[in-house]
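JOB MANIFEST
job_type = single_chain_structure
chain_count = 1
residues = 381
[input]
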Amino acid sequence: MVSTVRVFRKSSPNGKVTAYLSRRDFVDHISHTSPVDGVVVVDHDYLRGRRVFARVAVTFRHGREEDEVMGLHFSKEFELVNVEVVAGGKDVSPEVDLLKQKLGPGARPFCLSLPGPAPASVTLDPGQQGTAKMLGVTYELVVYVGEAPEQRPSLRNSVVFPIRKVQRPPPSTPRRPRLIVAKTFTLSPGKLTMEIDLDRDLYYHGQVVEAHISVSNASKKTVKYVVLQVLQHVELTITNTFFSRVVASVENHEGCPVTPDSRYARTVHLTPMPLNTLGVALEGHVKDQDVCLASSTMSGAHGSDNDALGIIVSYSLRVKLNCGAIGGELTADLPFKLMHADPDVEGRAADQKAISVDDDILIEEFRSVRRGRSLIDELDD
């Protein structure tokens, strides 16, 4: 059976270097990370003793470029890998091996493995302020011709690919998060008890968060209404900054007020969405049609959440019981995870083994900014 393999192509400004990328985004499956692989073709007469290199760097921008004055910089760049690309490279994916055979003996395959602690790609919504360069963690693959790997790539003879590193959840047993909190009041007997229950601890983007709220009012106070919010918590490790943004909110007056010696039970549905709020962490660019909230950050198999780098994202459901100006509020936060679904790995491996030299290759010109579908091609159906 003949199938179609899609790859992305981009050439250097002088047209002497052409690189082909098998996928735009690279997945961290927690236990392992898919490599950055592709093929580069260089005009033989243009080399003249020089070598071909492939470099992956990550940039963390935490401030606007327009505000960089008097030598002040709001970005940090780290080079993760820089290797020489030689002919006859091995340990490449079936797609790259097929592309190498199609392009001929001049094709040089490359396969770059990113380190496990490398942060996931996350962008921050600049709001109405706007900025020339996107805030957040961005990756860049550069294929260039030079004398040595320490040589700075020239824009004239280099190919630059903006790429992304995204996380997918590992296989796990689902559980139901549950939290019980209580509040007593000064000079008032009894207490107010609230129980929060979620139907699962991991939600996928676009799914509805189903929250079960149960309130037992054994106090002399009255609960006027209930507020439910989904909060996105963002931590910028390089600047030690932490903030939260509301990505879903519901104010429920049904069944209220909850008078003394009465009970309240409701199931409320919320859908986390990338609201137009300054500082919301996103996966993709604001103008992309499929832009979504950044996924929850998960640590590697041998690490902890405290070891995570870049921008750490987490989510929680916050429930507030409003008891008036004198009674105050009873507030509780129940954490959960929000991520993309990981497709069947075994099915994908079977598809890769079925690739043969008779398959077709669909070459698509690489565009740095996507205004349509921008999820990884590795997860295409």
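[summary]
Helices lie at 44-47, 94-103, 324-327, 345-353.
The chain has a mean pLDDT of 82.
exit_status = 0
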